[in-house]
Amino acid sequence: MKKVKKLLIVILSALMLVAMPLWADTFFFETGSPDGKLGALSRRPTPGKVETETADDFALAETTVIKTAVITGLIPLGTPLENIKDVEVEVYHVFPADSDQQRVINVPSRINSPSDLEIDTATRARTENTLAIFPRVLNPSFTAAATVVNKITPAAGLDPAFTGEEVEITITFTNPIVLPSGQYFFRPEVSLTSGDFLYLSGPRPVAGPTPDRQAWIRTSTLAPDWLRIGTDIIGGVAPPTFNMSFSLAGETVPDAGTPGQPICHGQSISALAHQFGNVDAAASALGFATVHALQNSFALFCE
Question: Which of the residues 63, 138, 207, 297 has an alpha carbon 20 to 30 A from that of 236?
Answer without folding.
Answer: 207
